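Much of our argument rests on the idea that a fold can be written as discrete symbols. The record that follows shows the chain in one-letter code together with its fold in token form.
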Amino acid sequence: MNDAAGWLGLGVVRHERLRPSHHLFQYPTWFVLLPMRAWRDGAACALPRNRPALASFWDRDHGEGGDDSLAWIETMLHREGIDDADGEIWLLTYPRVLGYAFKPVSFWYCERRDGSLAAIVAEVNNTFGERHCYLLAGKDLRWGHELRARKVFHVSPFCQVEGAYRFRFLRTAGQATRPARTVVRIEHDDEGGPLLKTSVSGVLQPLTRAGLLRALARRPWRAGKRRGRGRRKARWPPACRPCRPWSTCGSARPRGPAPCTVDRPPPWRHGPSWRRPRRPWPWLRRWEVAAWPRQWR
């Protein structure tokens, strides 16, 4: 990919949990693929950066919450001994929509000058306002090849911090008869075998203002819908699983901070100051919130 303006992806998110009971959902989504180094060098981009807009990118939503997320990823690569990522650094992420951010996971593709992959960083956020990065590098790193990483970060109340992830990244260039595409697949295995299968895929088209407006018009509540659905599933499990956020069962969040996390404000505080909800979970009924312990209201 050599388009310095970035790419807009239109596709589908899929989530499948295999145990203890099967659950599957999928829904349309859209995302952006941004050339961070070209952007720093002055390349024009249709997505507003660090300023309010219908859809925008904010550096503080990544890394340690600073004003330059690219400097953060370059510092981390240098600290981990990866000095050959001297090409483009692409960021696959969800932008803010109407000032609200929902970024369960973002991917940094760090390339060499010849376009080959030097490293991939999976930047994971959970519903407790924590962040962890999985660094994927080595001789087995290439498009379409399965990569593994041990799970060390709490994400979902349905999955304990054990087992490993299997990553697979696919990307095809556009041709005359078919457009460019990208696919990210993540599978979580534990001692009992496969537990979770997730993927995000989409067709890539040049990132333009007109394309952003069309994506917003087709799916105007993408960020709020995804955030509400994800947080309802994480905070209030279905009746068939009696676990509650304050319980001490095995699927509740473990005590103590997760390894290598970066503390930041809770996700519901990321919205515009003039539209902050009075309660952190405005979609819950008042009697549901009233039934919770005081520290969870």
Notes: Confidence is low (pLDDT under 50) at residues 226-297. The chain has one domain: 7-296. The helical segments are 36-40, 69-79, 209-218, 222-235, 286-290. The first strand starts at residue 7 and ends at 17.
